[in-house]
């Protein structure tokens, strides 16, 4: 029998097991720590990339919006004044914090191209030595014939007439002319004489569209014609008064008129829109007629809501000699970059 004291001494002197013998999974745990550390490093790297890419995306969106606005501003001076178009585009870009843009023109100054390049600083990507990235954007705009228009007067011009800049045209016939009692007027707000007079004075408050069918307004209506035109001319408070050669962009003498083609005996189909500078009413009574000179200008209250395919076709037609709906009245439109 082993004495208790001897047994105690043997137990006390027994060697302790090594760590790997006591916990065989300790090395695996160490490996997991290394893998987690590497994964966290990679995750932080991806977060850095996403953050910098997001910042660059936001900056590029702002830059794109700025050159879009610049192109739409500049195109309104085309095709007659590319120098002023460049100045206007640059000024609009500067208002949005873009101080350096490149402006060029295509298609005989019918199209404006605005380009901008900017260096964007990075933040997290600096750990890889990338301190900045360059972003570049561009915008193109053209003057496209409007497909919708508000503010038109209740007159019309037949599509068969050839429009020449500066030439006078009869916009409402007098007695003895016209076609079976129709003298060129349209029923836009209604068939009454008062609505016709109001539309002459202030323009039709609704929206007209290419392809829309409108009713003709029979009768000479010399009294409402004279009164409506007089009320329109009375709105000119400019000193000196607006003239064909020197007028404000929104002068009351400028009238938007539908270009139409017959659609039966009592209806007309709108195929486009044109602008005329109002000369006034000539003649008296049943012989009174409205005359105006043809303008090529921007329609401040026009829109082009054509589909992408139709817009591309219109752009192609303008670039190659003119579109079938091009009657000298335009609205600014961004086109494909």
Automatic annotation (TrEMBL):
The chain crosses the membrane at residues 32-55. Pfam families: Tad (PF13400). Keywords: Membrane, Transmembrane, Transmembrane helix. InterPro entries: Tad_N. Residues 30-76 form the Putative Flp pilus-assembly TadG-like N-terminal domain. This is von Willebrand factor type A domain protein, associated with Flp pilus assembly.
